[in-house]
Write a structure and sequence with these properties.
single chain; about 260 residues; alpha/beta; Rossmann fold; 7-stranded parallel β-sheet; 8 helices; 7 strands; about 15% strand; binds NADP nicotinamide-adenine-dinucleotide phosphate
């Protein structure tokens, strides 16, 4: 469902704000970056593949800037935040969204898979947030991308689920660590949203994607999967001043799937 009706966009919502969206070159991150840019923010995006970053920048417009980097590498994060500091001297909105996962049933999980996804999803998010903090001041907002997998069992997805549960926990403690700084931190938990990751990370065929969408529709009160724009809308809300009294919380955007 495309809710990005440009005639209803509030171009002032994030006016004058500087935003960073990690994993902003595809899927949910790209939708969020587009939305923040349309709503007035100066947007920076990161990702590992330069080709994807280039096409995302063309799609986002609004003078968005791409910085190539891997969130699991601290030297890359230093480069990203070094550039933002040099050009903008501050950061108002951080969407720590880069992440991924692949299927492996218990019994077949490899050490390499464990390290790969804990490094990207957990370590990458932790150091993205920690390195952003010196640039953020009172009024800043951090939104992490979690998943309903943190609380629901999807077969052969335990490593991914555990990384997202760790992020849910981080947000609770970080909200306390940030007490007195005026910086809010929240997590959005998407349900099923078909993005390029379904092929590149999960290895689904078109037929498997259709099947998965049909299954999701059956078990979801709203009767359909979500769209990246619908997740982006929730992220934009949490990033905005309209959410000024919301911190430490999880906003579940899953059509009700995990709530019944
Ligand atoms: N789609 C869903 O159903 C769903 C549901 C719940 C949660 N999520 C979460 O939503 C987030 C976005 O996923 P998506 O579905 O939108 O997938 P996607 O379309 O594959 O987008 C993932 C983005 O993250 C970037 N990325 C991945 N690993 C990275 C790394 N190590 N360093 C920097 N950038 C990295 C990717 O670019 P490069 O590959 O070029 O680095 C891409 O820009 C993830 O955290 C995912 O776990 C998705």
């Amino acid at each position: 469902m495309n809710i990005l009706d440009h005639t209803k966009i509030n171009a002032e919502r994030h006016a004058g704000k500087v935003a960073l969206v990690t994993g902003g070159s595809s899927g949910i991150g790209l939708a969020a970056a587009k939305r923040l840019a349309l709503e007035g923010a100066k947007v920076y995006i990161t990702g590992r593949r330069q080709s994807e970053l280039d096409s995302a920048i063309a799609e986002i417009g609004h003078h968005a800037t791409a910085v190539q980097g891997d969130v699991s590498k601290n030297a890359d994060l230093d480069r990203v935040f070094g550039l933002i500091e040099e050009v903008e001297e501050r950061l108002d909105i951080l969407l720590a969204n880069a992440g991924g996962g692949e299927f492996a049933p218990l019994g077949e999980i490899t050490e390499a898979q464990f390290h790969k996804y804990f490094d990207i999803n957990v370590k990458g998010t932790l150091f993205t947030v920690q390195k952003a903090l010196p640039l953020m001041s009172s009024g800043g907002s951090i939104v992490i991308t979690g998943s309903i997998a943190a609380v629901k069992a999807f077969p052969a997805f335990s490593v991914y689920a555990a990384t997202k549960a760790a992020l849910r926990s981080f947000v609770r403690t970080w909200s306390v660590d940030l007490r007195g700084r005026g910086i809010r931190v929240n997590i959005v938990a998407p349900g099923t949203v078909v993005t390029p990751a379904y092929k590149t990370e999960l290895g689904f065929s078109d037929e498997q994607i259709e099947q998965f969408m049909a299954q999701t529709s059956e078990i979801t009160p709203l009767g359909r999967p979500g769209s990246a724009d619908e997740i982006a809308g929730a992220m934009s809300f949490l990033a905005s001043d309209e959410a000024s009294y919301i911190t430490a919380t999880e906003l579940v955007v899953d059509g009700g799937q995990s709530q019944i």
